[in-house]
Amino acid sequence: MRREIVHEGAKRLTYEIREIVKIARIVESMGQEISWENIGDPVQKGEEVAPWIREIVSGTANESYSFGYTDSQGDINAREFIAQDVNNRSGIEITSNDVIFFNGLGDAISKVYNYLKREARIIGPSPAYSTHSSAEAGHSGYQHLTYKLDPDNYWFPDLDDLENKVKYNDSIAGILIINPDNPTGSVYTKAILKSIVSIAEKYDLFIICDETYANVTFPDTTWTFLSSVINNVPAISMRSLSKELPWPGSRCGWIEVYNRDKDEEFHKYIESLISAKRLEVCSTTLPQLVLPRILGDSRYKTHLVERSKKFYKRANDAWELLSVIPGVKCVKPRGGLYFTVIFDDIPGDGVLYIKDDKIKSFIESAVTNVPKDKRFVYYLLGAKGICVVPLSGFYSELEGFRCTLLEDNDKKRDWIFKTLASAIGEYLKK
């Protein structure tokens, strides 16, 4: 073409959680059954949506108005419900005008970064969730900026590292928090959240807090919403229906905006997001209509408690098996749907026995010039048919992998965890 048309950040749009599927599909086509532990879809892994939730959805879908548009920012009843929920649980007040719906959090994340000035950077945690890190790097055209999460301290943020990077890089305009964290399963204490808010206040920054897993925290963990500690700092909280109903196919996410009246530049930025939504007309109607009916139902709290107990037990089962293996570290998750394993010193030439010669040949060709943890992940695919995500795919210098807690069949999940443990032992002995 007579002009270059590719955005400078296009090459930084990577999503290892889905990209590993390309390799897994090839292995699957060669006859290996695959256990998909790479992506957080509870429904795909066998979780049944509660009948009373399905009844609300199906009943609303039978109403003609559910086929129409909503307001561009979202259904007014849903926005008022969310605003009231925020006001009931926090020290600040928002209105329905501070809530904006999107077609899933992927859509929200894309717009939140794309409508920032290109020179305005957001620093996020490492390991990083790929949607955030890729969107931020893609918007800027440069490598994503990160602060460290410390596996020796429950995967909590290294606050000194965060403040030093903010202090000496004035391109940083905001701080990203993912809490509960994906991929690590960490849940931050109230004191840590307050410290991050203090850093943002000190350096005149805003905060983006992805709270997708806010209602998937475990019974032994105290949960704190950002809204309860935000004070006067401008901020955006990100929420969705995907993980807690669960309803990932709804593609229904929203942002809650805090303190937009405290900073004129932040206010103009939020208005640009609303303008972008107007260009789309609106987000998907049905999930917005049912949101107040489901989240406001007296059965919903019990639903959340039961799921929390279920994933808590699975996290403990995985941790008990994997944390005792020599040469690895597995920090017990405190929330979310995942656990992460780190290798102390993974070999660059490690292998797992692959019975099928055709699969073995393919894996041997695929591991050329890949990170060492990705090499392990590929061999795990070929030898055991378990698809996990290498930690190097999460903007991390640490080597390891992320696996889900989602398999609903108890026997199969037990097999997955035990097979992972034996495969790690076999691989590290080479």
Description of the structure:
With 430 residues, this protein is an alpha/beta fold. It folds into two domains: 10-47 and 301-429, Aspartate Aminotransferase, domain 1; 51-295, Type I PLP-dependent aspartate aminotransferase-like (Major domain) (Aspartate Aminotransferase, domain 2). The chain has helices at 16-29, 51-61, 76-89, 104-114, 130-140, 159-167, 190-202, 264-280, 285-295, 300-322, 357-366, 372-384, 410-429, and strands spanning 35-36, 99-102, 121-126, 145-150, 156-157, 172-178, 206-210, 235-240, 253-258, 328-330, 338-343, 386-387, 389-390, 400-404. The strands form three sheets. The chain has an eight-stranded mixed sheet, sandwiched between helices. A four-stranded antiparallel sheet has the order 10-11-14-13. A two-stranded parallel ribbon has the order 1-12. Helix 10 (300-322) runs parallel beside helix 13 (410-429). The longest helix has 23 residues, at 300-322. The mean pLDDT is 93.
Protein traits:
430 residues; alpha/beta; Aspartate Aminotransferase, domain 1; Aspartate Aminotransferase, domain 2; 2 domains; 4-stranded antiparallel sheet
Helix fraction bin: 40-55%
The class by helix and strand makeup works out as alpha/beta
Radius of gyration: 22 Å
> Mean pLDDT across all residues, rounded?
93
